[in-house]
Design a protein that fits this description.
By secondary structure, the chain is an alpha/beta fold. The chain contains 16 helices and 26 strands.
């Protein structure tokens, strides 16, 4: 039986760990059951954004009417969009060639399953043939996640698309005429944006009371109003049954509050109802790895599993499923595996940012208002609108507009920023400075403050990370959208502060 110093399952963030192992001269193995590069490269954030940007331009052309400019979109070249998308996904081919020829590395293209203590078998995905049986001194599980398919009667017979198959064998030769999106989270919102912009008649079915339920209610409300002008949106409805009717697929949906039933029809169905763990496929229990009640692999603050010398990171641990979070964990995991024990580093998820690349765009970092209160914080909330600053007005946003962008800051009583939430143009860019600020320290000093919202007038800015005082005391480029975030502090109001 072959023995390896390091075995990595998954070729997304897992490649980072393999590279370090190879640099240290370890005998390594990597296992991948799909295209090399993981979810982000082959079926997630990178190819989807190649399609999102044209959709953004279409919506911006429509928005331009508000400022006196009429654009006519003469052609949507789906073939060119697809070609550019596949050019990114196809990077996996060169990666596979390189890994296949890397000294000290064995590449297994198949499904890995634990068979005993630190022991694994890899089987062919196509025919179940045994490709390898080996042991490893160290294992890193970076096996990602897969689409959750809810129990909808008849859905398998009708067939459907997921984010995995869309960027694979079910990618359409042209945009569908009509599409039912089951789900209202990040993936669902981005696909709905893409296809509604290129002319598809889109229907969203979400069983929760609002879309993108991880966001602030105000942000969900703006997105839903925007979507409702471009597509049909059903919230508080769950899909219960699917059937074929001629060339169309019919989904029966039921209101979760009243029980009312409706039917929606479309050429295709996209299921985007969340992600589930691959731990069951790996059969992790056979090597003593614990999972939580939802099936995700349990990890401690050092990304260690319950089994010594087995680590888990990225989507596989179920915590914040974003590539940048996996990159962050990769750096920490590498240090904890290959460094000195006394230099181990713990993860900190208090300022994990993300963006939802829909239209309008959404940016998020830290706690929502409700989360902050639930965790016992006494907080201020600061809200500002794009229409309140000169640049926002110049871009066509006016007070009372349903699509007027919004910034919401959640701040504790020591003026530490707990969360920042934005919807509108450039939201992903505008939220990033708050990420930096939440991860920084600030030297204590006394500041004269005249703003009545920042009483007492003599404020001591704490050295704790994340004080908003650097924003308050900084010049902000005028006119720019930076003002909509920076000036939000002037609208700060107490929520549950005990005076």
């Amino acid at each position: 039986m072959e023995n390896y110093d390091l075995v990595v399952i998954g070729s997304g963030i897992g490649l980072n760990l393999i590279n370090v192992g190879l640099e240290l001269g370890l005998k390594c193995a990597i296992i991948e059951d799909s295209k090399m590069g993981g979810t982000c490269l082959t079926r997630g954030c990178i190819p989807s954004k190649v399609l999102v940007h044209p959709a953004d331009l279409i919506r911006e052309a429509e928005h331009a009417k508000k400022i006196g400019i009429q654009f006519n979109i003469e052609e949507i070249n789906w073939d060119l969009m697809a070609k550019r998308m596949w050019s990114q996904i196809d990077h996996n081919k060169g990666m596979e060639v390189g890994l296949s020829n890397a000294p000290g590395l064995t590449l297994y293209k198949g499904i890995g399953q634990f068979t005993g203590e630190y022991e694994m078998t890899v089987k062919s995905k196509e025919n179940g043939e045994i490709l390898g049986h080996f042991k490893g001194a160290r294992f890193v599980i970076a096996s990602g996640a897969r689409s959750f398919i809810p129990p909808i009667k008849g859905i398998e017979e009708v067939d459907y698309v997921t984010s995995e198959t869309f960027f694979g064998e079910k990618f359409p030769n042209k945009p569908w005429n009509s599409l039912i999106v089951i789900g209202g989270g990040v993936i669902a919102a981005e696909f709905a944006h893409i296809f509604s912009a290129v002319g598809t008649d889109v229907t969203i079915v979400e069983m929760l009371p609002r879309l993108v339920a991880t966001e602030e209610p105000e942000i969900s409300d703006i997105l839903e109003k925007s979507f409702s002008r471009q597509m049909t949106v059903f919230t508080n409805y769950k899909a219960v049954e699917a059937r074929l009717e001629g060339d169309l697929k019919v989904v029966s949906i039921q209101n979760t509050q009243t029980g009312e039933k409706k039917e929606v029809k479309a050429e295709e169905i996209l299921v985007a109802t969340g992600r589930i763990s691959n731990a069951d496929i790996l059969q992790v229990e056979k090597t003593g790895i614990e999972i939580d009640r939802r099936g995700w692999i349990k990890t401690n603050d050092f990304l260690e599993t319950s089994k010594q010398n087995v680590w888990c990171l990225g989507d596989a641990n179920g915590k914040y499923q974003f590539r940048h979070k996996a990159n962050y964990e990769g750096r920490i995991c590498s240090r904890n595996i290959f460094g000195r024990k006394e230099d181990r580093m713990a993860v900190d998820y208090s300022s994990v940012p993300w963006a939802i690349f829909t239209y309008p765009q959404i940016g998020h970092v830290g706690m929502t208002e409700a989360e902050a209160i639930d965790k016992g914080h006494e907080i201020f909330v600061a809200i500002n609108r794009y229409s309140s600053v000169a640049k926002g007005f110049a871009m066509g946003f006016e007070e009372g507009d349903e699509d007027d962008g919004l910034v919401k800051l959640v701040i504790d009583k020591s003026y530490r920023i707990l969360g920042a939430h934005i919807i509108g143009p450039n939201a992903a860019v505008l939220v990033q400075p708050f990420v930096f600020l939440m991860n920084s320290g600030f030297t204590c000093q006394l500041s004269e403050v005249s703003d009545p919202n920042l009483s007492p007038k003599l404020v001591k800015a704490c050295p704790e990370a994340g004080s908003f005082m650097p924003i308050y005391e900084s010049m902000i480029i005028h006119p720019s959208l930076n003002e909509v975030t920076g000036w939000a502090i002037g609208n700060m109001k107490p929520v549950n502060i005990k005076l």
